[in-house]
Amino acid sequence: MADGLRRLVSTESGRVLQEKLESWYQDYEINSCDQNLNRCCEIIEMNSAIQGQLFTILSETAREGGHYAGVETIKSRLLPWLGTCFSSTTSGKPFETNLSLSQDSVEKERQLRKFANSQTLELQELQKELTSTRLQLSHVKQDLTETQLALEDTKAKSATTLLAAEDEIVQLKAALKASHAQEENALRNLNRLNDYEQQIQILRDEISILDAQKSVLQSRLARSRSPSPRHSQSRSPSPLPLRSCSPGRARLTNASRHAYLVARFGDIYAQERLDAETLLRTYISDMEMVQRIIYIAAVESFHAAKMAYRHFKMRVRKTLSLGHSGPESLEDTVLDYIVRHEDLYDVQASVNEVIRSMNINPKISFPPEIDFIVISSLIRELCRVAFSMQTLIPPLDIAFGTDGELFNETKYRRSFDSDFTAPLVAYHVWPALIENDVVIVKGEAVTKRGALWSHRSRSRSRSHSRSRSTSPLRSHCVSPS
Fold it and tell me: Residue 229: its pLDDT value, please?
C-alpha cells in the first residue's frame, strides 16, 4: 500500500490533472467542439486512472486491517459518496464547494498558462538572441582565424625582412666604415693639396717675377739694338720689384688674377671690340671714326675705373681703420677687402661717366639721333677689367698715346691698312697695357704720312660743325696732342 501511494505521489497525477483543466479552460473558447471533447475525454481518462489507483490503495488498506476492519468507514463515507456521485439529482453545498474549488483551479490554470506563454515568448526571444550571438561568434571566430593566418604571414615576412634588414645594416656599417676611411684619406689629401697649392702659388709668383724681369731685359735689349736716338736717350724702366709672399688673399691670388686680367684684356680686344665696330658701322660709314670712338671709350673707361677705385679705396680705408687689428697692415687689409667685394663696384656709374666724357670729346662725332650707349656693353667690360687691374700689385694701366706721336714698336703694332714707311701715328685703334712703365700687351695704331696735318684739319672742321657742347678742359685732359 505504501508503495502504491508513493508511486501516486511521485507521478504528480493530481497536479498534472489540474494543469490539464486550466489549459482546457484557457483554450476552451478558441478550440473546436471536437478539440474540447477530446480534452474532456483525456481528463476523464486521467481522472479514472487516478481513481483506479486510489481504489487499489483503498482495497489494499482495507486488506491490511483484517477481514472486518474499515467496514464502518466504507459504509459511512465511501458508499454515500458513490451514491452522490452517480446521482444526477443530487445538489447541495458540497457540490458548490467543489465548483468553487474547480473555478479557482481553472483561474490558476489560466494564469499559469499565461505565464507559460510569456515565458515561452521570452524563451523564443532568448533563443533568437542566442542564435544571433552564435552567428556573430562564428563570424568572430572566422575573423580571428583569418587574423591569425595574417599574423603568421606577417611574422614570416617580418622575420624575412628582419634578416634582410640585418644584412643591410651590416652592409651599411661596412660602407660607413669605408666612407669614414675615405673621408679621412680625403682630408689628408686635402691638407696635402693645400700645401701643394701654397707651394704652387709661391712658384707662380716666382715665375711672374722672372717673366717680368725677362720682359725688362728684353725691353732693354731691344732699346740697346734700336738705332733711334730717341730710344737710346729714353729713360730705362725700373726693374719690377719682387712681390712678397703674404698670407693675404690679394697677395696670394695676385699672380692668378694678373694672368686672368691680362687674358681678359686680350679677349675684349679680340671679341667685344670687333662686335662694337660691327655695331657702329651700322650708324657711321667712316672706319677711322669708328676706331677712334672705340679707342677713346677704352681710355675713358680706364680713367673712370681708376677714379672709382680711388674713391672706393678711401671709403674702405676709412671704415676699416676704426677697428683694424691684426698681423697684416691696414693697406693689405683694405686690398683684401676690395678683392673679396669687387661686386660692390658701381660699374653703371662709371659707364655713365664714360658716355658723358665721350659726348664732349671734340675728336669724335656721332649722329645726333644716336647715343654712345649703343656700345655700353664694351664700356662696362672695360670698366670692370680696369677696376680689377687696380687691385693688382703693382696695378696695370694703359699707355698714354697722342695723335701724331712717333710710332713705337715696343708699344704698338701697325694695323693692316697702315703705311709701314710712315714714322708717325695717325690715330690709335687700341691702347697698350703696361705694368710699371713696361709694356706687357701691345696696342694697335695706324701710321700714315701727313697724319699730323690731316688730324689738325679734321679736328678744326669737326669743332666748328659739332652740335654737342664741348669742354676744352676735358678734351685737353683726355687726349692732349
Answer: 34
CB 412 within 8 A of CB 331: no
The amino acid at 321: S
- Axis crossing angle, helix 287-320 with helix 347-359, rounded to the nearest 10: 140
Between 404 and 388, the higher pLDDT residue = 388
Determine phi and psi for 246, rounding to 5 degrees: -110, 150
Three-state SS for 326-376 is CCCCHHHHHHHHHHHCHHHCCHHHHHHHHHHHHHCCCCCCCCCCCCHHHHH
Grid cell at residue 440 = 706687357
Percent of the chain residues topping a pLDDT of 70: 76
Contact 434, 397 (CB under 8 A): yes
Q: How many C-beta atoms lie closer than 10 Å to residue 112's C-beta?
A: 15
Q: Is pLDDT above 50 for 464?
A: no
Return the number of other C-beta atoms located less than 10 Å from residue 395's C-beta: 14
Beta strands across the sheet bearing 425-430: 412-414, 443-447, 425-430
Burial class (CB in 10 A: 0-12, 13-18, 19+), 477: exposed
What CA–CA distance (Å, rounded) separates 339 from 333?
10
Q: Which uninterrupted H or E stretch holds 229?
A: helix 229-233
**384 CB neighbour count, 10 Å cutoff:** 20
Q: Can you tell me the distance from the alpha carbon of 41 to that of 51, in angstroms, rounded to the nearest whole number? A: 15
Tell me which of 6 and 426 has the higher pLDDT: 426
Which residues are paired to 434 by β-bridges? 397, 439
Nearest to 382 by CA among 352, 353, 351: 351
* Amino acid (1-letter code) at residue 11: T
H or E, element range at 435: strand 433-435
Of 131-140, 183-192, 279-288, where does mean pLDDT reach its minimum? 183-192
Residue found by looking up cell 714714322 in the block? 423
